Amino acid sequence: DDLREKFPGNSYHYMRKNCNSFSNALAEALLGEEIPGYINRMAKIGSFFLDIDDFVRMRPYDSKY
């Protein structure tokens, strides 16, 4: 029930909050340990690049440069 609040159906994102994120939270709740890091590595790398893209889009364009 605790995970239900953290993972509503509309919160899914293929890189930032995916099935591996849920699996990790479930493993922590049941076992007290995270899943191995290599399982979600590609999503974490992709999320890093999404964050950079989001940052660049937020910056105002300055035509002087």
Low-pLDDT runs: none
Bin the helical content: 55-70%
Please count the beta strands (DSSP E, at least 2 residues each): 0
The class by helix and strand makeup works out as mainly alpha
Rounded mean pLDDT score? 79
The profile of the biggest β sheet is: none
Count of DSSP H/I helices: 3
Give a verbal description of the structure.
It contains 3 helices and no strands. With 65 residues, the protein is mainly α.
In terms of topology, how is this protein built?
Layout: H1 2-6, H2 19-31, H3 41-58
The gist of it:
With 65 residues, this protein is mainly α. 55% of the residues lie in helices and 0% in strands.
Could you list some keywords that capture this structure?
single chain; 65 residues; mainly alpha; 3 helices
